[in-house]
Amino acid sequence: xxxxxxxxxxxxxxxxxxxxxxxxxxxxxxxxxxxxxxxxxxxxxxxxxxxxxxxxxxxxxxxxxxxxxxxxxxxxxxxxx
Length: 81
Prior knowledge:
10% strand; two-stranded antiparallel ribbon
């Protein structure tokens, strides 16, 4: 829960920096859910989250009745922290 709050704060700040003209911002969109799901609570929702990831070459697909967005084959890119 606490991690989610900090990532959300980083995401909001990064988008604010981008609007302010900064070229390099925190790449918060690289944080995804355990199952590869995208975060609706990020600025711009899951759609913007998907746009950033697609721009980096990731494949996004929809899953289930709720049509939730997920990163396809994300397991190979996981980093241990």
